[in-house]
User: What shape does this take?
Amino acid sequence: MSTSDADNTTLIGQSSRHTPCAVNQNTMLTKDLLRYKIQKGQIHPEFVKPTDRQLLAIAEQLIAVFEASPDIQRATLLESSKHIIDSTPGTPIIKRGLEKLLLDRTEFDTEPNEELIAFRQKLFTETSRLLSQEHFEDYTDYQGKVSQIMADESSTEEVELSAKLYADLPSCQPVLTFNTLSAERLLHRYNAAQVQGLLLHCDTLTLKLADSMTAELRQLFKYLRFNQLLSTIRKERTDGKEIYQITVDGPLNLFYKTKRYGMNLANFFIAVLHQPKWELTAEIQFRNNRRSQLSLDESCGIKPISQQFLAYIPEDIQLFQAMLQNKTDDWQIRPGSQFLPLAGDFYCFPDYQLVHKSGVETAIELFHPWHQGHLIARLKTLADQTDVSLILGVSKELKKNALIAEALESSEYFSQFGFTFRDVPTMRALLPILNSFV
Assistant: This one.
């Protein structure tokens, strides 16, 4: 897959962490651009056919406009794309959806123009002074006086004054770059965005995957952890086959930073598309509407729209590695890549795995401010299990909850193998626990 055919942008999570498989966190459709039907409690996204010749032709025209956009202003770009939307056959909402996805792949120059800011401040200061000190017969007289005063500050002609005054409005921002893709890939991207838009209104998501333990499956669980999604993992036997069932809390199930969490969950769907066989069900609820169930599997026909970066090392891992090296040469850290079996056929997929030079291994699982219910469940599981080597890191925000504080205080396991952190774990809190293993 070439870079022109795949999304290479990143998802930004806690501490500006980057997840390479996921697309830009804003690359999805807004609710007014979603197309779906609800029948008998089931919600059905209205996908387009990636082989539709008419749509492919329109997509190619839109992509060509965006490919030619560097150095032109946003307003000019939008005018050109609107012309295509208005002059071509087909459903307008689909074409506007394609335009939205292409805009999300476009980088505009949004840096503050310090020279223009200074010019505007000078202009406003002078006009305020004029209005307080002089009387003008009409607006032309006033405008002429302002232009005369500003002539020493700028070479701007009188007719260009208003244009320069507002030259940093969003409509005037020039295009810097556009991350192109093929027309067929854009249509697959559109279908994926339909699902993502629905998942932003998700209460609970359940994903079933074959227990193949392929690199793709392990990578999927890494993305689950990198995106800090709340999940319960258990292995089940269905029709004589073992499968992993992942239950993920949706943004509607939370009271803490639900918008960002919803974006992370929606972007997680992009990683699911890399699995050979998958089955997804989700409870969707729009404001003031009844709940509907979304059911999808690999037969929906959406192709992967991103590249897999199996050797990628996230920034937080690199930071953690540097911190460890500064404090000790005895331990090495790497991203979590193995399941830890827990009681009751449940599994933990930790954030980090650590290896001591003696060969001793342990793992770290982090609980962030929105992990309240999952933390309590983990403490209960570990209270009856002594054969697992797992360190628990808990955000100090969670301790502000009286129920959590009490659970941590009464947990013998946490007193031995737990620590708290603010934004990221520190070696001061972690090293004593690590060294207790050896």
